[in-house]
Amino acid sequence: MTRKPLTISIEESVLKSFKEYCEDEAINMSKKIEKYMKQELEKKNKK
């Protein structure tokens, strides 16, 4: 599947904490955000 870049604005402290979390857990930040997005879409589609 083709990947597309995305520009978003996030509160600085939230971004810093999330980056640190991803680094500590060796998680790809983009893939983690994509997973959250997919979960939200699945919730919506179940309604």
Radius of gyration: 13 Å
Backbone shape: globular
Biggest sheet features: none
- Beta percentage is under 5%
Backbone structural class:
mainly alpha
Poorly predicted runs of 5 or more residues: none
Helix content: 55-70%
The span between the termini is 26 Å
Number of separate strands: 0
How many H/I helical runs? 2
Domain count: 1
Query: Secondary-structure element order, as H and E?
Result: HH
Mean pLDDT: 95
Features:
globular, 47 residues, mainly alpha, single chain
Task: Give an overview in words.
The chain has one domain. It is globular. The model has no long low-confidence stretch (mean pLDDT 95). It is mainly alpha-helical. The N and C termini lie far apart (26 Å). The protein contains two helices and no strands. Helix content is 66%, strand content 0%.
